[in-house]
Fold:
Amino acid sequence: MKYWKKYSKEKLIKRIDKALNANVNFQTNKGLGYPVSRLDENVFNTSGSFLDDSPLLKSFVANPNNIGCHTLGKSEPAFKGSQKLEREIIQVLAVDIFKAKEGEYDGYIATGGTEANVQALWVFRNLYKKQFNATLEEMVILSSEDTHYSVHKGSNLLSVENVSIPVDFNSREILKDELDAIVKDLVSKGKKYFMVISNMATTMFGSVDNPDVYAEILEKHKVVYKIHVDGAFGGFIYPISNRESTINFENPHVSSITIDAHKMLQAPYGTGVFLCRKGLIENVLTKEAQYVDGMDLTIVGSRSGANAIAVWMILFSYGYYGWFEKISTLLLRTEWFTEQMDALGVEYFRDPYMNIVTLKSEFVTEKIASKFGLVPDTHNGSNSWYKVIMMDHVEIHDLIKFVDALKLSLKSN
Ligand SMILES: Cc1ncc(COP(=O)(O)O)c(C=O)c1O
Structure:
């Protein structure tokens, strides 16, 4: 890992102080034109020695606005300190985790996975319009039936049709023959420009799509396509647990990636990340954003610089090896849990590199599911699955209680 290092607490505090000092300070700077200030001291406790030990709270009080995208062109000079930390995050994610070439990527911290997925579709739609004069009717989004509903939101917002590809019930793999038949049919109906959302861990199953399957079929039908990887959940685990993964920027089929820090990384909400190859994000430039000093290339306008600082702190508190150890612990717990399910004869789906185990609902009573907070695939009472996720707070101690309850209920049935 070239950039993903572990820093001492002192270094973290020093770097954050330096970043905040490089931003405009609304306590001392009386800049008259900014529609922004530090947090209201009449309401919030904004001073005191407790802030010295809490760089994140200090950042929230300073309230920097990281508006814009800071990997390309000019940025608003008032917040250059927190923008620099954001650039370091994007560098770690793009280069160290997703194997982009140096300087060959763009990205920013979005409000979440939904925005990052919609941003990708927006970029592709505008690219097709610009490059091919494509109409909305000639474009189509493809994604598996297990894909997060944010893709349906994107389809609705951008007026581009979304077509769901069926998956095998047990393996959750895209059915290649069905995909082939669907693409053939879409082409016969005049679709020429395809946007794919390929999952790097679906919300319900933790299943990982192979983007090369999409690429093979779309190339067979000689259509124009771009692939976005939705790693909102799996982005901070799969590329680390599966060192052979080819779902990254070394894969020429991958154009952009979503990766949420507010899921596996346990960052505050509002920390989804959008990454893409160079040359794409310009397609969503809002030329009318003239009061912002820099290019506006993001769906969201103002966004929290403190959130960027939170993500930076987490990444550099762990470093790559610290994070690897944390992920390995969660995977060991997952392994242990699947062994218990095997012993009980409970059927489930699990990707071997992920920390999600999705149990067939016929093995779990509603009472147990509700007592242990399992999440069903649908809330309308006709669910087929319940998922268990090995997050930081889910320890073997908690899992044992669930396993015992399940054992008892299976015995009595
Ligand atoms: C795979 C996947 N993509 C996108 C999202 C949307 O993320 P957010 O809620 O941060 O907008 C989620 C949320 O659970 C998800 O699991």
